[in-house]
Amino acid sequence: MEKFLRNLVKFTAKIYYNAVFTKKKEFKYIPASGKLLDIKELENMIDASLDMWLTSGRFNDKFETEFAKYLGVKHALTTNSGSSANLLALSALTSSKLGDRRLKHGDEVITVAAGFPTTVNPIIQNGLVPVFVDCEIGTYNIDVSKIEQAVTDRTKAVFIAHTLGNMFEIDKIKDIANRHSLWIIEDSCDALGAEFKGQKSGTTGDIGTYSFYPAHHITMGEGGAVVTNNTELYKIIMSMRDWGRDCFCKPGTDNTCKKRFSMQLGNLPFGYDHKYTYSHFGYNLKITDWQAACALAQLEKLPLFIEKRQKNAKYLAEKLSDLTDYLILPEVKDHASSSWFGFLISVKPEAPFSKQQLVEYLEKNGVGTRQLFAGNILRQPVFVDNSVKLRINDSEPMLSNALTEEDYKLLPNTDFIMNNTFWVGVYPALGKTELDKTSSVIHDFIMSEKNS
Ligand SMILES: Cc1ncc(COP(=O)(O)O)c(C=O)c1O
Known about the structure:
Number of strands: 15
Largest sheet: 9 strands, mixed
Strand order of the largest sheet: 1-9-8-5-4-2-3-13-14
CATH class of the domain at 42-291: Alpha Beta
CATH architecture of the domain at 42-291: 3-Layer(aba) Sandwich
Radius of gyration: 23 Å
Number of helices: 14
CATH superfamily of the domain at 42-291: Type I PLP-dependent aspartate aminotransferase-like (Major domain)
Distance between the termini: 73 Å
Shape: flat
Helix content: 25-40%
Bound molecules: pyridoxal-5'-phosphate
Structural class: alpha/beta
């Protein structure tokens, strides 16, 4: 009976879906990113609603298992955003459970300034010192050749993103990390499905993070995940995600460890309820089962989504290939296969127009654009208005609110990216019609500038 009624609800929802959501979308304005859902996501979310479970439950268990399987890793934990995943990944490295390898206040973490703020923020939020290394133009990833000179005795980790789905050379970074005993966190929030030498992004370092915000490769509305092959880190991340508790019972279950009332932990009385015993300064960053239900349907489509992103990027690159006197198109390293979040374009300094002019023209003519997020994050108000201890390359420690133009010049490519780089959409809802329009608006602008 229950199954019949569930199917009835889903059948009714399907009628609604077909009436409301199946009209072919014509874009008056081409978005740089977006989600692609169908009846499967809706059916899964209805199932989760009819469970009336609310918090993480059977759909979350299944998603964590399936996601780990897809990536080929031992452990995956969902989080309520990619930013939360990043916060957990770095916070986990400060755990006392790691002994000598624990990150301590004042330790340094290598990162980049051209990217998303919540790759950098957890470093500062954990009382650590970010060390900024310049990026390459073309791949927009960290310049690997500059990492080693930035390493000091206090450097303990590398925390960087695969920029917009373009893999950095993880093998070279791993080599440096091995020589200097550095942890690696791969921020794969924008790079789900990208590969380097056949290994998926986020799975080679110690910890990988992902975002499932609607702009991303798959979505659950708000959400993210942390993955690792290190079981110790997995337990720490789970504890920190779930209030900092020592207990690892799933929501709604008790006494998984079978020692709930028979442990001696901290200076608590013997047998103090393990359910209320805390070994970390944790958060609550869990998701609901509706989110996991949505993401499970998305995960099935992921290979197709990645293929479409790759196809779209290739098509756009071909369409713009006659403009390389003016524009720099995205570059991919040998052995890397990108899973494009967006299509990055830089305006060459010698072009007779600026990025600003091109971006404004695109927006005015119905083509959505985005910046490479913060540009040079060190120039953002949050760094200028606060006194954050940091280093740039091999510099002595500096304070963010005292940085001068001379200091910013230590990251010339990062400033170039801020001034000259932007991106346009290649996400799976876009097809040839939209990409042709993007290309023709760019061509029109450049022809008119050339002739003026
Ligand atoms: C590289 C990178 N890391 C982290 C995040 C944060 O993800 P979320 O928006 O899910 O918090 C983003 C956001 O798009 C991102 O681009």
